[in-house]
Amino acid sequence: MSSPAPQHLEKKPVKFSNLLLGAGLNMFEVTTLGQPLEVTKTTMAANRKDGMAGAVARIWSRGGVLGFYQGLIPWAWIEASTKGAVLLFVASEAEFYAKYFGANDFVGGISGGMVGGLAQAYATMGFCTCMKTVEITKHKVAASGAKPPGTMETFMAIYRAEGIRGINKGVNAVAVRQVTNWGSRFGLSRVAETQIRKMTGKSDTEKLGVMEKILASALGGGLSAWNQPIEVIRVEMQSKTEDPNRPKKLTVGSAFNYIYKNNGVKGLYRGVTPRIALGVWQTVCMVALGDVAKEAVEKLTGEAVTAKH
């Protein structure tokens, strides 16, 4: 027999203001440090013989400071403005139903994060990450004297040649990354919060301070980079780098074998340093700044309702 649903489980509505807030915070995150760190880790993952200095020099040669923002417009902006809303909506629904069927807060939270991450990958992140990677890794045709194709021209060329599959290349790897990312971030952040409570002598009911919340979020975000091999596989599957020895149609398994054969274990973790920095920055923006912004929005909307009455 199935376990009975909790008696006092209340389903919280997903507020439109929170969806806009999620999109806004994601846009801020990616436009500041997010995209430069994304470009650096993608360049290192695609060019696995480059160290950090080599990757920075390679990016700089593509256009100076602007080289670090390749793929920002429109792909990173499209991804940023949609993935936060998708995560918030799907994760809250999944968490509610997990608890409805008897899961505790910890399991419910991780379940919500994992399902939300899965929805992110297939709804919006697949084609966005693919196009960002294409922009970062495609050869510079300008060197041969030809006019380099624009972003939309590149997109349409891939679509005409390979259809939906082409612009969503590597989406399964993105899905695995997002599921493990959000499961890790929820779980590891919760573990970090527990340890901080023990060290500061706070009970489970006491709220953590802003700096304590930032620390827990940063630890959760940084440590979630353990799954870097799937990120390197994702980049390889989406990369436009030419190599006659690379399998024509890459799957997650064949990409793993190709990277391991050519670059060993170290190659599977190439780009992990900027990935850790990116994970920390994302979680600080979305958790710490998110909490502060959410309180400010709720205060403003609350005052607006009071003023009407």
TrEMBL record:
UniProt keyword Membrane present: yes
Subcellular location as annotated: Membrane
InterPro entries: MCP_dom_sf, MCP_transmembrane, Mito_Cit/Oxoglu_Carrier
Membrane disposition: Multi-pass membrane protein
Domain of life: Eukaryota
Family: Belongs to the mitochondrial carrier (TC 2.A.29) family.
Descriptive protein name: Mitochondrial carrier
Organism name: Aulographum hederae CBS 113979
